[in-house]
Design a protein that fits this description.
Order of helices and strands: HHHH
Number of strands: 0
Distance between the termini: 30 Å
Helix content: 25-40%
Strand content: under 5%
Length: 86
């Protein structure tokens, strides 16, 4: 599978930095250290995305519950945020 990917995704796509891009590829993994170096070379831009912290999880829950009828108090939402860590 990996050799097929490397054949179909040639490195010449990244040779001319000024050319109009022909393809946009997004890859994701929870273990980037396990990727083969040849694969990592074909993705020159890396953007780490970390799990949300307690405050961000609280905000996400509050936003999702805006249009839902519920009886949750702020401390209930905070508890849900605690329970959904990671």
């Amino acid at each position: 599978m990996m050799s097929k990917f490397l054949r179909l995704f040639p490195s010449y796509l990244f040779i001319d930095a000024y050319a109009e891009p022909q393809m946009f590829v997004i890859g994701t993994t929870e273990a980037p250290w396990l990727l083969m170096p040849a694969v990592r070379r074909r993705f020159p831009l890396r953007v780490p995305v970390f799990p949300p912290d307690h405050l961000d999880r609280t905000k996400l829950i509050e936003e999702k519950m805006l249009h839902v009828e519920h009886s949750l108090k702020p401390e209930d939402i905070s508890l849900i945020a605690d329970l959904t860590e990671g």
